[in-house]
Amino acid sequence: MEIKRENLIATLGGEESVARMDSEAKADALEDFLSTELDKILLSKDPFPTAAEVEQKIPTRHYRMGVGNLFVAQAPGAKVKILPPMPGKPTLYDFFALRFAPANHVLQSAALAMKNGMPEEIILACLLHDTAQALMKADHGYWAAQMYTPYVPEKTAFAIKYHQALRFFADAAYGYEYPDLYRRLFGEDYVPLPHIRADYEMLKKHPWYEAPRLVTVNDYYSFDPNAKVSIDPFREIIGRHFKQPKEGLGNDNSPVAHMWRTIARPDMAL
Ligand SMILES: [Fe+2]
Ligand SMILES: [Fe+2]
């Protein structure tokens, strides 16, 4: 990956902010910068590609774009790391700290939802909405909703599931525009897949339309190293609405326990 120094510095808030960072913070920031292909795409000033050009790039990579973040080191030449072990009875907090970290995007999204006075079910949805990208980025809203359904309110799971479809459709009434990021990721002439269009048609008539729409409104891709991101502001909401299984996530024999186990141990060969 080619790194433009000025792009990196701009992303970190300019020369002054960088000067204030200690070397550990700089190393962390660089790692974050490199951590996803998304960063590179987002910072691009190139014209938007066409969907055909996006497809032509597939054989230039050693991984597929839909792969979960835990399963691939995306920077060329980088290697995956040994992950810290999970405790015997892992909680949602353990997954955030040891598998979803740094989780900047979802923590900032939930903080924005809290600042905007969203209902607790929506703040929780914002906090969790993209965490399944650790496991799988393709269709991640559907994966996440499945993963969380046994443990969160129905409306939270609904909001998580359908943010996936509503991200593709603007809604001026909520101030939501089609994201430029999608023009880069999918191509400017991309047409959403039939299941996404069908879900959108269903949602337009659904009494809970607003729930996933509010996730999209509070969903922004941002990288602000000066933002203090922490799960602490959300502990009360998690405590009230997240049904932590006493055996630990992955050990409770729920229909989705294997998904949590896979995130806990992504190095299992089989
Ligand atoms: Fe998402
Ligand atoms: Fe998101």
Rg over CA atoms, rounded to whole Å, is: 19 Å
Distance between the first and last residues' Cα: 31 Å
SS field, number of helical segments = 15
The average pLDDT is 89
Q: What order do the SSEs take from the amino end to the carboxyl end, as H and E?
A: HHHHHHHHHHHHHHH
**Helix residue percentage:** 40-55%
Largest sheet: none
How many strand elements?
0
Runs in which pLDDT lies below 50 for 5 or more consecutive residues are none
Hetero ligands? fe (ii) ion
> In percent, how much strand structure appears in the residues?
under 5%
What class would the helix/strand composition place it in? Answer: mainly alpha
* Overall spatial form: globular
Report on this structure.
With 270 residues, this protein is mostly helical. The chain contains 15 helices and no strands. Helix 8 packs across helix 13 and helix 9 packs antiparallel against helix 10 (154-166). It starts with a helix and ends in a 6-residue tail after the last helix. One fe (ii) ion (FE2) is lined by residues 105, 109, 129-130, 219. The site of one fe (ii) ion has 5 residues, from helix 9.
